[in-house]
Amino acid sequence: MWIKAGLFHLLLSYVLAMVLMVMPLPALLEPWRPDWLSLVIIYWLLAIPHRVGFGTVLILGLLADILMGSVFGIYAIALLLIAYPTVRHYQRIRNYSLTQQAIIVGILVLVKRAVVYELEHVLNDAVFHLPYLYPVISSAIIWPWIYLIMRKYRRRYLIR
After folding, report:
1. Which residues contact 98 (CB under 8 A, 6 or more apart)?
2. Helical (H) or strand (E) element with 100
3. 49-103 pLDDT, tens per residue?
4. For 5, which DSSP code?
5. What is the Cα–Cα distance from 141 to 45, expressed in whole angstroms?
6. Is 75 helix (H, G, I), strand (E, B) or coil?
7. Cα 53 to Cα 84: distance, rounded to the nearest angstrom
8. Cβ atoms within 10 A of the Cβ of 48, count?
9. Rg of the Cα trace of the chain?
């Protein structure tokens, strides 16, 4: 059986992101949990857009729907909406500084959170609370470290 080089490690990064999505945190830190899956997806879309595409994002979104217990398709739609501009402008975003990338990642996570909220509001009558947006800030702040760690991981395990 032939498997593309680095596929196992690529899948492992997705699994780790999903585990971090549901891992228990202290009550004080829970609202600030970064949007791990979005960060990992954005990194792989920037680093290897020829291997990670919309199909991968759709499958990960549907798995996130199952994991989070939301209406089937909400996370998938939101992740696809942030994947498009990332893939469309990946060459440009790659050349930005980490600070500029962090701002873009913050905007993308904000779009994802807004789409998820709106769909949850329409389908489940969800109520908005300001702490819902805290992951936008924490994801933008943590992006430079995620980028550097994931780049080292990609190079170490020859994910191309």
Report:
1. 143, 144, 147, 148
2. helix 98-124
3. 999 999 999 999 999 999 999 999 999 999 999 999 999 999 999 999 999 999 9
4. T
5. 19
6. helix
7. 9
8. 16
9. 15
